[in-house]
Design brief:
two-stranded antiparallel ribbon, 7 helices, 2 strands
């Protein structure tokens, strides 16, 4: 018997396809899977990048003013309560041991407790809970209004349930202290405060 002819070009000119579509020799690594993986990864990253530019910026541009107004309202409430907790509320200007000083101390303690509660309830994570905002970023609470015009961010912020609660409480405390604020048309101590002493 004779040995098959040794033809070094038989793998190129054979009629049957090679075992691997990418390589004629099993020992040669193929670049196709690596290139495919690289292109898929790069395509995924490019797609994410483009979608962020198209979706995030407009969402940010729309939501930023509302967030700023909410921040102003929260700052107003906390500022009023902190102001009321100051020296005037603590009774420091009154005679030590007097009945008015004792009442002032109780009032100051109540205001301090109110301030702590306000700081807790007005935390950003509480303001943006899912019960107040839809997945589309729109408010999920009702806006009471009489006019047919477009709702403003000021109305949305003022009618946020937590903010509305604390705006009312802050205004009540200002009135109890006898202070008229700019919203009442006068800045300073009210009549009761002038006559008190």
């Amino acid at each position: 018997m004779s040995a098959p002819p040794n033809n070094s070009l038989s793998d190129i000119f054979t009629d049957s396809p090679p075992a691997s579509p990418t390589s004629t020799h099993p020992s040669e690594p193929s670049d196709i899977p690596r290139l495919r993986s690289t292109h898929i990864t790069n395509g995924y990253r490019d797609g994410i990048s483009v979608s962020k530019d198209q979706a995030l910026q407009p969402g940010f541009d729309e939501a930023y003013p509302l967030g700023a107004i909410l921040g102003l309202r929260v700052g107003y409430v906390l500022g009023v309560l902190e102001g009321l907790c100051g020296p005037r509320a603590s009774g420091n200007t009154l005679t030590p041991g007097s009945e008015r000083e004792e009442q002032g101390g109780k009032k100051a303690q109540r205001l301090q407790e109110l301030l702590v509660q306000a700081k807790e309830e007005l935390k950003i994570e509480n303001l943006f809970r899912t019960e107040y905002w839809g997945s589309d970023g729109m408010w999920a609470y009702g806006i009471d209004r009489k006019e047919e015009e477009e709702v403003t961010f000021w109305e949305v912020a003022d009618q946020h349930p937590v903010v509305r609660k604390w705006l009312g409480r802050a205004r009540d405390e200002v009135r109890k202290a006898g202070i008229r604020n700019a919203e009442d048309g006068f800045v300073g101590i009210g009549e009761r405060g002038r006559n008190a002493g």
